[in-house]
Design a protein that fits this description.
- By secondary structure, the protein is mostly helical.
- Helices cover about 75% and strands about 0% of the residues.
- The protein has seven helices and no strands.
- Helix 5 runs parallel beside helix 7.
Length: about 200
Amino acid sequence: MPTIYQLKSRFQDLLRPLCQKLATAGVTANQVTMSALGLSLLEGAALWLFPGAFLPLILLPVVLFIRMGLNAIDGMLAREHDQKSDLGAILNELGDVISDAALYLPFAALPFISGELVVGLVTLAIIGEMTGVIGVQIGASRRYDGPFGKSDRAVLFGLCGVLAAFGLTSEVFFAILMGLGLVLSAVTIWNRAKNALGELENK
């Protein structure tokens, strides 16, 4: 099923010159990964400490876009500049789920959004990423199947941040958005598990 993740290769092409400069300057993939995590934790703290405040909410899509760029760069540094490491793999996977939790759980504190739906969505997001990693454990590839991967979650919560920043706080509309995210997250978990098993059958 289609997902924003499929645009990753074009995004990487745009970032490749910057990636080359960073590699030349001695910047490592793990440093970029930790920078993305640090940025996410700072933004998450701002969202949590100042619930409903304009600046943290309006900055969320900007932070998510920068995080997406940093995530692409750390992968290119690892693959294209011989920086792959076991530590890097651990930091990459843990950094993603910790960043998601830090950035999205603060929405549960907003009065016009169901905390249960937010927590449920973050929980399914973590399960979805875990399912993708399990593909490697059983001998398949790391699964990134959609329709609701990391980039798609970023779009959903970035939109929620902008809407909330400008006072567009319809409880019904946010419930629909979060409910849709829950359904798509469940489908994503199913697709990743199914396709990992299918990959093994076709070997």
